[in-house]
Amino acid sequence: MNNTACFPGKYIQGSGTILNLEHLINRFGNKAIILASPSARKFLPESFFHTPLSQQFVVEIFGGECSEVALTDFSNRIRNEKADVVVGMGGGKAIDTAKIAADRAGLPVIIVPTIASTDAPCSGCAVTYSTDGEFEKVHYQRLNPSVVLVDMEIIAKAPVRFLVAGIGDALATWFEARSCAANSAQNECGGFSTMAGQNLARLCYDVLLKYGVQAKIDNEAHRVSPALNYITEANILLSGIGFESGGIASAHAIHNGFTALPETHAFYHGEKVAFGLLTGLHMMHAPEAEINEVTAFCLAVGLPVTLAEIGVPEIDREKLMKVALKSTEEGSTIHHEGKGITAEKVFEAIIKADAYGRQLFMKPAHSG
Ligand SMILES: [Zn+2]
Predict the structure, then answer these.
(1) CA of 104 to the centre of ligand 1 (A)
(2) Largest Cα span, the chain
(3) Rounded to the nearest 5°, which phi and psi values hold at 31?
């Protein structure tokens, strides 16, 4: 197996970049189909709704789940409209649907994330869920998106919970890449980890620790600031390249496990990934100082550190074993942490991580 890395064709981040979308579409084709979540559609520039431009694109509103049913519908629309460029606009699931459908149709895809909630925009892989929201499968595309276009004015307007969820997704990147390198596990682009993957993952973690809290404050004030710019790049670009070219491990596997419980579906990907990361650190007996650093950061930015915060208020062995079994099923990336990971170990680590998090809440704020 070779060392492999993959990247988006072009990454553009700045204020007002959405105005470049028309030009970008024209560079790739004659007719665009734009898959937009209901809240993302309003960010399309006014010019899109006037002739002649309005004849060169159609907007399809995204239904909410990246499932095979949604993919079949959207693929049919692409064919019927004879589109030659696909644009995915919105959050992780709208983006993933656009990426898979574009790949199946053999068309270039331009991604416009309107929230910085996941590292899906830059990657060449996407995840499908059942119509009930349970994790099903990872799909690998032939190429990463041709363009990722991030408009900071749009990102700054989004509710802060999205940015925090993106921080949770990005927080796991370095730890998962590190595990993959240590165990010579395959990354998400079909090879061994590269220096690019490892170092961008590490940079991602450092940027989060340094600017995460400030970026949250700025996002709450809907202010485009240096910190918000750095964290947006960390959440979308650094984490995107970091997880794909560095590899994923227990945090995402445990996230996938939690999707087996319907009560966790109201919580975002990155929120569950953050708790998955904490569980993974306990499971692998990470140094106390490291567990402290990550947990304290989660508390500081408002990421979940307890089960209750991802919708599981009571410890129910049967339910949590369901999570643990799904996390450890054959082919799960949890095995990138090394040999001998069992459902029982995951179950115990979930309990440990939850107890650790709950005990932090009981401490007075300044007791250290
Ligand atoms: Zn993720």
Answers:
(1) 22
(2) 64
(3) -140, 125
User: What's the CA-to-centroid distance between 173 and ligand 1, angstroms?
Assistant: 8
Q: How far apart are the first and last CA of the chain?
A: 46
Q: Span 261-271, mean pLDDT?
A: 96
Among residues 103, 119, 218, 269, the one annotated as catalytic is 269
How would you write 103-165 as a 3-class SS string?
HHHCCCEEEEECCCCCCCCCCCEEEEECCCCCEEEEEECCCCCCEEEEEHHHHHHCCHHHHHH
Confirm whether 269 is a catalytic residue.
yes
Model confidence pLDDT, tens digit, residues 315-338: 999 999 999 999 999 999 999 999
Q: Point out the domain boundary residue: 138, 156, 174.
A: 156
Q: Examine the residue annotation and report whether 139 is marked as an active-site residue of this protein.
A: no
222 in catalytic set: no
Shared domain check, 187 and 310: yes
Catalytic: 255?
yes
Q: Is residue 150 domain-shared with residue 176, that is, in the same domain?
A: no
pLDDT value for 29: 94
Answer with the residue of higher pLDDT: 363 or 182.
Answer: 182
Average of per-residue pLDDT across 68-79: 96
> Given this model, what pLDDT does residue 200 score?
98
The active-site residue, picked from 96, 103, 169, 354, is 169
Task: Examine the pLDDT at 194 and tell me if it is beyond 80.
Answer: yes
Using the mean position of ligand 1's atoms as its centre, give its distance from the Cα of residue 174 in Å: 12
Residue in the block written with tokens 């440990």: 352
pLDDT for the residue numbered 363: 58
Ligand 1 centroid vs 273 CA: distance in angstroms? 7
CA of 262 to the centre of ligand 1 (A): 19
- CATH code of 83's domain: 3.40.50.1970
Q: Answer yes or no: are the C-beta atoms of 275 and 258 closer than 8 Å.
A: yes
Task: Say if residue 144 is in the same domain as residue 168.
Answer: no
Q: Is residue 143 part of a domain?
A: yes
- Domain membership of residue 334 as a residue range: 159-362
Counting the structural domains of the chain, the total is 2
